[in-house]
Design a protein that fits this description.
With 111 residues, this protein is α/β, with parallel strands linked by helices. It contains five helices and four strands; from the N terminus they run E-H-E-H-E-H-E-H-H. Helix 1 (16-30) packs across helix 5 (97-109). It starts with a strand and ends with a helix.
Length: 111
């Protein structure tokens, strides 16, 4: 199944390490043959700004360091009918942007 648009919002505490992840994910998306005709947008914002940005994104990925906020963030995502999940801790720790991007695609397709 081909997707025309993949707008991914990473939410985190302050954004330093998540910013590195965004850079890695964008690099992978730009070099992906499967995503070459897809409108890809990937950004990171603090969890407290979720309502300000959520309408512009297809899926929400939560940094593992704030997974304790998942219930609250899920309630907000539900209001906007947006899928949300916590980023795998191992993938996050090893900056495995490919796996995280793949998870975002699966999350969008299963919406």
């Amino acid at each position: 199944m081909e997707i025309n648009q993949l707008h991914v919002l990473l939410v985190c505490n302050l954004g330093a390490s998540t910013g590195v992840m965004v850079t890695k994910m964008k690099e992978i998306a730009q070099n992906s043959e499967k995503l070459k005709n897809t409108d890809v947008k990937i950004e990171a914002h603090p969890a407290g700004e979720l309502r300000e940005h959520i309408e512009d994104f297809d899926v929400i990925l939560v940094g593992p360091q704030i997974k304790h906020q998942l219930k609250h963030l899920s309630e907000i995502a539900s209001e906007y009918n947006k899928p949300i999940q916590v980023i795998d801790t191992k993938d996050y720790g090893t900056v495995n942007g490919a796996n995280i991007l793949k998870d975002a695609i699966i999350l969008k397709m299963n919406k």
